[in-house]
Amino acid sequence: MKFTDKLSAAWATNTSLLCVGLDPDVSRLPAHVRDQPDAIVRFCKGIIDATADLACAFKPQIAYFAALGAEAQLEAICAYLRERYPHIPLILDAKRGDIGATAHQYAREAYERYGADAVTINPYMGFDSVEPYLAWSDHGAIILCRTSNPGGSDLQFLQVDGKPLYQHVASLVADKWNRHGQCSLVVGATFPEELAQVRALVGDMPLLVPGVGAQGGDIEATVRSGKTAQGTGMMINSSRAILYAPPLAGEDYAAAARRVALETRDAINLYR
Ligand SMILES: O=C(O)c1cc(=O)[nH]c(=O)n1[C@@H]1O[C@H](COP(=O)(O)O)[C@@H](O)[C@H]1O
Question: Where is the Orotidine 5'-phosphate decarboxylase domain (predicted)?
Fold first, then answer.
């Protein structure tokens, strides 16, 4: 199934625009999990099982695995997601960007090794660095546009021909690069005004919107700025606020994650 169709189905099935980010920082795992040999897999499976009916996508961040040489654990988690929750899109967050020949290998890594439905891509090197991903026409190419971090303004906000660079990226992707209808853009929840600008430029294109939760993005402003006329169009990501939600009395980490994911999903739905 095409990434965009799978995403549309997941928005509807789970009544959710929430993307649950899987950023497993071993130093923050509960002690009883951290001591296990397969700690990262256990922890992530616990989060996935607790939130799968609340999420429109899962997004593992590759750095948390690669830094530890734990790619086998990422493979196991991706296999688990594909087997148990095949209806929920799996986004590999890798923010790749390189010359075409190398990009082809990164695309194989994301779509074949990890079996991801979509991957995040840095557009800084231009179209030939993105084109290899588009050859997998059923898969999603999620391109950085207006990132959530403060330093995103250093380059993305530079005025080029009378408008900020991120708007050029949005138009370029929407008008030229999105040949097979598989492209999405990343726009941070920390910049709702720019999110509205991007939405106006790209029609109903899906947007990956990180920055609610730990980065403090405002949910109401995010949804009002980024939703489509159908009240969808976004994968609003939260990672740390869900993964490391402090358990209340009687809760384990997975129950705490579920509680925060439910609150976040429902808060998003209030403004759709
Ligand atoms: O591509 C991303 O996912 C991404 C883009 C961006 O502009 N900002 C951003 O925070 N992210 C990722 O989204 C996640 C945000 O995590 P939390 O701040 O813990 O919710 C991390 O995995 C980031 O790498």
Answer: 17-260
Distance (Å) from CA 144 to ligand 1 centroid: 11
Q: Is 2 a catalytic residue?
A: no
What is the tally of structural domains in the chain? Answer: 1
- What counts of helices (H) and strands (E) characterise the chain? 13, 10
Q: Return the percentage of the chain with pLDDT > 90, whole number.
A: 100
pLDDT of residue 135: 98
CA distance 4 to 156: 26
The string of pLDDT tens digits covering residues 19-61 is 999 999 999 999 999 999 999 999 999 999 999 999 999 999 9
Task: Name all residues whose Cβ lies below 6 A of ligand 1.
Answer: 21, 23, 61, 93, 95, 120, 147-149, 186, 188, 210-211, 213-215, 237-240
> Could you tell me the two tokens for 13?
């099935």
ipTM value of the model?
Answer: 0.99
SS3 string of 106-118?
HHHHHHHHCCCCE
Cβ-contact 44, 24 below 8 angstroms: yes
Q: Which residues contact 124 (CB under 8 A, 6 or more apart)?
A: 97
Give the per-residue pLDDT at 212: 98
The CATH number covering residue 189 comes to: 3.20.20.70
211 Cα–ligand 1 center, Å: 6
- Cβ partners under 8 Å of residue 72, min gap 6: none
Q: How far is the CA of 134 from the centre of ligand 1 (A)?
A: 23
Pocket perturbation via mutation, ligand 1, pick of 124, 239, 242 by most ligand atoms within 8 A of CB: 239
